[in-house]
Amino acid sequence: MLSYSIFKTVIKESKPFVRYKNPPGHWSVVRKKVQPVDKALDHFDDFYQQVFRKKWLSIRKALLGKQKYVAVINNYGDSEKSMTKLEASGGVKYENSV
């Protein structure tokens, strides 16, 4: 069994382990990794561009943009009360903004 002082000197004199990394210009570092999201976007583009043709670019932009929330008022309930409550909380009427 090694004593603690001998063990300490062996550790000090041994070379520390250094992980090998490729240089910044190496092909494996420069090449973009293909993520699943990129593959899904390519498949969406291939399929839906044929379906929607010229409209696909604006649809794609809307899908990738910031989410917007919508509330639909039930006309069989108290619609005026619901509308005033939503407007008071910062909601905007879509009919008036078009």
- First-residue to last-residue Cα separation: 84 Å
Largest sheet descriptor:
none
Beta content: under 5%
Sequence of secondary-structure elements: HHHHHH
Low-confidence parts, pLDDT < 50 over ≥5 residues?
A: none
Mean pLDDT: 83
Instruction: Please give the count of helices.
Output: 6
What is the global morphology? elongated
**Number of DSSP strand runs:** 0
Question: Which structural class do you get from the secondary structure elements?
Answer: mainly alpha
Q: Approximately how much helix is present in the residues?
A: 55-70%
Structure overview:
The structure is a single chain. The chain has 98 residues and is mostly helical. The chain has a domain at 26-91. It has helices at 4-13, 27-30, 36-52, 56-64, 79-88, 94-97. The mean pLDDT is 83.
Q: In a few lines, what is going on in this structure?
A:
The protein is mostly helical and 98 residues long. The protein is built from 6 helices and no strands.
Features:
98 residues, mainly alpha, 55% helix, elongated
